[in-house]
Amino acid sequence: MVDFASVTVTYSGAVQPTLLDVNLQIDEGELVLVVGETGSGKTTLLRAINGLVPHFTGGTLAGRVTVAGRDTSTHRPRDLADVVGVVPQDPLSSFVTDTVEEELAYGMECLGILPDVMRRRVEETLDLLGLADVRNRPLLSLSGGQRQRVAIGAVLTSHPRVLVLDEPTSALDPGAAEEVLSTLQRLVHDLGITVILAEHRLERVLEYADRVVHVPGAGRPVIVGSPQDIMATSPVAPPVVRLGRLAGWSPLPMSVRDARRRAPALRERLHPPAGARGNVRSPSPPSLDSGRDCVISIDRTRASYGHVPALRGITLDIAQGEVIALMGRNGAGKSTLLSTLVGLRRPDAGTVRIDGVDPATMTGPRLIGRIGLVPQDSSDLLTRDSVAEECTDADRDAGMPHGSTQDLLARIAPEISAQTHPRDLSEGQRLALALSVVLVASPLVLLLDEPTRGLDYPTKERLSALLRDLAASGHAIVIATHDVELAAETATRVVVLADGEIVADGPTAHVVIGSPLFAPQVAKILATADGGDVPLTVAAVRDLLAVSG
Amino acid sequence: MTAVGVETAGVDLTAVRGPGGVRTRGRRRLPRALHPGAWWLWAAGLAIAASRTTNPLLLVLIVAVAGYVVSARRSQAPWARSFGFFLKLGLVVIAIRVLFQAIVAAPIGTTILVTLPSFTLPEIMAGVRLGGPITAESLIAALYDGMRLATILICIGAANSLASPARLLKAVPSALYEFGLSIVIAVTFAPQLVTDLDRIRSARRLRGRAIGGLRGTAGSALPVLEGALERSITLAAAMDSRGYGRQAHRSRMVRRTTGAALLGALVMVVIGTYALLDASAPAALGLPLLATGFILGGIGFALAGRRSIRTRYRPDPWTWPEWGVTPCALATAGIVVAASVQGVSGLIAPVDPIAWPTVPAVAVLAILISALPAVITPPVPDSARGSRT
Fold this sequence. Notes:
Chain A is an alpha/beta fold. Chain A has helices spanning 42-49, 52-55, 100-111, 115-128, 144-156, 174-191, 202-205, 227-233, 239-247, 256-262, 264-270, 334-341, 364-368, 387-398, 404-412, 427-439, 457-472, 484-490, 508-512, 521-526, 538-548, and strands at residues 2-10, 19-26, 31-35, 60-67, 70-71, 84-87, 162-166, 194-198, 211-214, 223-225, 294-305, 308-319, 323-327, 349-354, 371-374, 445-449, 476-480, 493-498, 501-507. In chain A, the strands form four sheets. In chain A, strands 6-7-8-3-9-10 form a six-stranded mixed sheet, sandwiched between helices. In chain A, strands 15-16-17-13-18-19 form a six-stranded mixed sheet, with helices on both faces. In chain A, strands 2-1-4-5 form a four-stranded antiparallel sheet, with helices on one face. In chain A, β16 (445-449), α17 (457-472) and β17 (476-480) form a beta-alpha-beta unit. In chain A, α3 packs across α4, α3 packs parallel to α5 (144-156) and α14 runs parallel beside α16 (427-439). Chain B is mainly alpha-helical. Chain B has three domains: 29-170 and 319-385, no CATH class; 174-241, no CATH class; 252-305. Helices cover 63% and strands 4% of the residues of chain B. Chain B is built from 13 helices and two strands, in the order ααααββααααααααα. In chain B, strands 1-2 form a two-stranded antiparallel ribbon. Chains A and B meet through β6, α3, α4, α13 and α14 of A and α1, α7 and α8 of B.
């Protein structure tokens, strides 16, 4: 169905090719997962399938890509629109029309499909993707999961034989991600569509994949194989695989279900009847009366957008050294709470105090010395043309001696060259730069909004370690995230929001164990019938095994 | 779902939409959205009427009629809320018009309210006089004039909230589709820019910098433009992948005929218009040339439209409700224009001396005709009201 024959892609101005000599054959009805570190060329590989590379992006493509017998060198993306459907990373920015129904029909209109056929296919697709209830709704009013399903439906109506998705679940909460993935699986099983998708959160998608393509980047050859083969050596691997490697299971488990079947022996080792229980790795949350200062205090705070309430009376105290994971579905009020904390929004009622001061009254160095926020799109913070200029600016903003930010950055991400343009950095590097810019003012409180979107596992591990160090040195940290694995690795306490209210608040292990949505993979695998404490991360398991010998 | 189920779903859905307010008894009209062209025609009728009068009572009546129809027939889509925005914009227009009259324009009448210090700009700037006496007459005249402008604007706003420009796009001839689409996308990007500006300003605050002032604004402008550019590239890639711009194969003969017809039409229309306007040109030249030009242009557009293979999904029908709205618009515009040509008193409100304007009954009647669409058009489908689930 899709054939890559010795494909090499070089962008104009690049020193080395992004993809080197890729040979790949994908058959009809396969679900192929493309994995790799950030910036390794996954998106380039996906975009070469429908000819966006090189017709749209420029650069040169040597070799041959054919889709359903059509050569992309002679067919532009628009000429392939009837065989390849591409769902881009951010659905909202790719919508052409205003409403769900029109968006579903748009591709067919371009292809010149007859009106009665269009009508039938739109109705079928609305049912297939469960969108019939929202058919007349404006696209802007949809939730994240609904938007992603509309984006999939919008390409499905053209009856493509290949579906290409770039990080379809990265912006979604765990529930919405499951919704989208089960839709994809249904397409593969029921309609025989070939699906090719790139994703960083392997723990969500690995079990659905028939084959995995590992793009190592830096000009190294692309490796293709079964999930088990690739995962045996891949540096990007979800917790279930890493636990399998640690325990020496063979073949490696790809899903929680696989792993649980092999886990009884491991569970026995971790929970000897008289052995030490509990999560060794995650420190128990410091209690307020242990002498730590309460730096964030939120008291019965309410906020709303127009008539839509976003926060309905939140009361929360956060002490120094705590790492809070703020979880909950899209639109639950997480981002609103963060912007209230930095004083970007004034609450409608209640009080917010950072170190005893109302954040809305602070500006300039007074503000950034107390509280720092890294927004969801960390490039928002970066406005200059080079990393060096950005660092100089940050020194001046914070009133610190010249070079402070640069030193900080060198500790977090030593590989970044000072002359690079911030836009040319990878997601992880950009986050590191934004973090340094915020941290140079040494704020008491650090807030992060979805920091792991688009990050690969090695970068995420470095981020977790950094955040734990910062907490140990007395910062209070609040992370709004959908990433249950990050929460398990980093957080001392989890706060779950739903509809603007706190529905759960407690030590990480207590909140996430037993929750079908928020439990990390390791906890799901090792969960015991009595619901007792279990380790949450692979590292914690390793430590426990080391202790028990 | 089977094919049969799908066929019937199309019919049934209109009847089962929404939990409440569904009319199924007897031969009540099925709710549906009116053809956007009909709404724009209706708004144009009111706007033309407004352009022919400065009588404040008639202008207020026009706004009231427009507001009544909008409140009766708008959906809950985001663009439907734009009417309020246009009302505010109208007030701003009036304020600016009055302010300029007070500062710049030469006063009329003799009732001096207040005298501002005045000075005359140097000859090089046309010797405009600023300040000076402000008379009640000139302020009233400016107020009426501003109201007229604002009313026309509000009529456009009414059409915009009843039928978004994107819906109107569905009805343009296929030769103009791509041009129209680029305009619509540009229009929808404007609100996105506001969101972007907001985000960038928040980010400036997070870095402890000034938000307001010249430096704050300048610092936000570049990232906002960058964001807009990036988004348009994403959108272009998405549209290309979905088949935008696919063209049917046309023979060289057809391509050349199309080009020749459009070019010929343009030349003829230009010469014809010139001949009509220039008194010294032979009278027999103008009208026939113009007419031939338009016909040729029509042929050219039809041929050019064949290049596009686009089909339309559920095009809005033009049936009796649309035919019902058409005469309302024509009557409102026609009667008011005719009255103004005939010099019916009361259309132009007296400003020097100031007097309470009389209201010509014929104009009131003409404007009230345009309130009829609130009743004769089918109701808005309930599901378009878009409650969040």
